[in-house]
Design brief:
It is built from 7 helices and 17 strands. With 428 residues, it is an alpha+beta fold. Helix 2 runs antiparallel to helix 6.
Length: 428
Amino acid sequence: MRISTNMMYEIGSRKIGDLQHGLVKTQQQLSTQKRVLTPADDPVAAASILGITQSLSMNEQFAVNRQNAKNYLSQEESILQSVTSLLQDAKTLVVNAGNGAMEDSQRKFLSAELRGRVDELLGLANSRDGAGNFMFGGFQISSQPFSAIPTGAQYNGDQGQRMLQIGASRHIALNDTGSSVFENIKTGNGRTLTAAVATNTGGGIVSAGAVVDPAALTGHNYTIEFSVDPVGADPLDPLVTTYTVRDEVTGFYMNPATKAFDVAAPIPLPPAGPRIPYVSGQSITFDGVQLDIKGAPATGDKFTLESSENQSIFETLNTLIQTLEMNAVGAAGQAKLTNGLNAANNNIDNALANVLSVRASVGTRLKEIDVLDSTGDDLNVQYTEAMRALEEIDLAEAISNFTQQQITLEAAQKSFLQISRLSLFNYI
């Protein structure tokens, strides 16, 4: 086969070009420390690297989201801690107000202090985050969630919880609504609420009561009414105090023998009616509820038992202020004061328990974020190692290849130089 001069130059230059291209590529791999520079170098590895890069980018974004969530929840925890301290101070104030040596004027000083605490609480409920958004308004981040009203404060937000994705399959709540923190708080013992009627003239003091048999609860309202009568027909005979328990839904009275509401009788009850002898501090039990009344109730004094309702912290403190400002004159006045303070104390306890429950929820979310941060760091390491295995070069192998390609290119260049001289024109 005859090889023309033109063919010889074409083959030589093409081969030298290929060798130069391979040498440049190896040099690029050495300088970037990457084996796969283009998808053509290894299509399968390039596709895998693209997937890992996307996963790594998403994991980094989740880390940013977790940090944002942690900042927001940490701020909420700080505010709730302030609310807890405020309620604890209010509880201490209730205890101080119950001091029998304290006069009405001194209790009014406490009420003035409490008004300042209510304003402070309103400010905490209307707290903003670092971006200027209201924290406890649900989705209503641009409008003030609470506004002052005569009975306390009114909630203007909604029930929305803003969610943020902090993991591939995990969304977390960034906020708690103002209603769940400051409003939806059960009165009394959480199931039932006892109270003294405002028109009472005696010195009876009712306890908060307790649920002793949840299955026996009816949800009905009850009235305990007292009567103080002489033992005999002579008004000068010794007095005895009795009471009746009436189911306000059915209209029946409690049978003292069976503790069941099966006696229907008009008011006033006849002497033979279901009157129960009163002993101060003795438990009164019916329909799964147990309570006691202490002191000396007067004829016609009534105490009620109803199902617990939701009440805001603001309303609880506002009612407490009114209690502190009343004039506790005589046994009846002292009893009203004590009953009011006891009710406020129970409701503040419930408010504290509710705030602590929300704080526990916030703490749980913060703990979960810490766990996911650790998991995310581990994923970053795994993704990085997998990417290195796919795209990074074997340095020793690459240097060896580079040296070999360099020697081959030099040999090709020298041999082409010699071959290109094999022309008859060189001998003319």
